[in-house]
Amino acid sequence: MKSMNYINKLLPQLGAAFKSQDHELFDIVFDIEGKKLYADKLILSISSPTFKSMLSDRWISKNDAIKIETYKYDDFKELLTFIYSGECNLSNENIFTMLDVAEFYQTEDLKKLCDEYLSKLELKLTNIFQLLETSNKYSLIQMKEKIQTFVFQKFANFTKFDGFLNADKSIVKEIVAMESNLSKHHEKMFQYVSLYFVYFLTREVREVFLEFLLENGLKLKI
After folding, report:
1. Which 8-state DSSP code applies to residue 71?
2. What is the pTM of this model?
3. Sorted alphabetically, which InterPro entries does this protein's record hold (predicted)?
4. What Å distances lie between residue 165 and 47, 73, 158, 194, 204, CA to CA?
5. Contact at 8 Å (CB) between 62 and 48?
6. Sheet holding 35-39, edge to edge
7. What is the pLDDT of residue 199?
8. For 55-71, what is each residue's pLDDT tens digit?
9. For residue 88, which of 147, 161, 176, 213 sits 20 to 30 Å off, Cα-Cα?
């Protein structure tokens, strides 16, 4: 048997303990930008393979302050707050940094939270390329699904946008693939999009599209 009452009380208590930063409760201290954060080896090690390796006796002495130079104090504190409480203050200003933090420290639940946050952002032609690159870099499932829907719904606008016509070839190819994979189930739309690529777009983008058709065994009716 197990006590759900005890289990449900434990996480808030851990969060409160971390928030208190009572150094007598912890056995690890981090030094970030000259500021200290206290934590304990057990919680960090079971929450993050990166921390487990970092905190092993092979790398540090028990009494050493661990200097963090890769991330800022506020961002690292958000990571530890999430580990101890399951909560993280995500914003448009810190979301990309927190996603990178989650990836580096292999905290999958925080990464999923970042993916959920990004998937709720309003997609625009001006941010779609950055978000597509981000979703690829960090393998974000929810974000990628939303991008695919946006591409299908707004593809005509893409073809008139300078950012698309001048984008990296790999990004153009991926967007073309998204559109074609969806629209090929709607033959008339696929043919319309194909003809637009052939007759109206720049030579570089047209070549990417024709290369995609060839690789996927698709035919264009002219």
Report:
1. S
2. 0.78
3. BTB/POZ_dom (IPR000210), SKP1/BTB/POZ_sf (IPR011333)
4. 43, 40, 8, 15, 8
5. no
6. 35-39, 28-32, 66-67
7. 42
8. 886 566 666 789 999 99
9. 147
What does the block give as tokens for 62? 């028990």
In the three-class reduction of DSSP (H, G, I as helix; E, B as strand; rest coil), residue 29 is classed as: strand
Burial 180-193 (b: 16+ CB within 10 A, else e): bebbeeeeeebbeb
Contact call for residues 29 and 55 (beta carbons, < 8 A):
no
pLDDT digits (tens, 9 = 90+) for 132-177: 899 999 999 999 999 888 877 776 676 666 666 666 767 666 776 6
Tokens of 129: 């390329």
Secondary element (H or E) of residue 31: strand 28-32
Sort strands 28-32 and 66-67 into parallel, antiparallel or unpaired. Answer: parallel
Would you call 6 exposed, middle or buried from its count of C-beta atoms within 10 A (0-12, 13-18, 19+)? exposed
Alpha-carbon distance of 40 to 1, in angstroms, equals 28
What letter does residue 167 receive in the DSSP assignment? S
- Count of other CB atoms within 10 angstroms of residue 178: 19
CATH number given to 4-119 = 3.30.710.10
